[in-house]
Amino acid sequence: MFLGIRKASPARSWYPRGLLRFSALWVPIRWPHGFPEPPELDQNTSGSHPLEFAADMQELYALIERFTRTPRDFEWQTHPHFGPMPERDWMRLAYLHADHHLRQFGA
């Protein structure tokens, strides 16, 4: 979604997007588990299904390298929950998202 490879429809919400984005990215608390993701990203519905661990890891490494490459060869997309974001927020989100999932596995 970050790179525009997969599109995600905007989430309907009652909360102000800017407040949610600031809280999620800059308030020093751990993210809760179970926050709803867009169905296009959920591996149990329309998202990417795990295939073979080693191949999935190689794809992850390639995507991280592309995400951090300068100059970028993609345009930032609109986040389904947070709306449009500057590069600084996308980079912070990527770090926090990776940290969140690594903590799930005890890393």
Question: In a nutshell, what does this entry contain?
Answer:
The chain is built from three helices and no strands.
Q: What's the helical proportion of residues?
A: 40-55%
Overall shape: it is globular
Structural class: mainly alpha
Write down the domain tally: 1
Quickly count the helices: 3
Mean of residue pLDDT values: 83
The main pleated sheet reads as:
none
Q: In sequence order, what are the helices and strands, one letter per element?
A: HHH
Which strand-content bin applies to the residues? under 5%
What does this molecule look like?
This protein is mainly α. The chain has one domain. It has three helices and no strands.
Keywords:
107 residues
SSE inventory with pairings:
Layout: H1 17-26, H2 53-68, H3 87-104
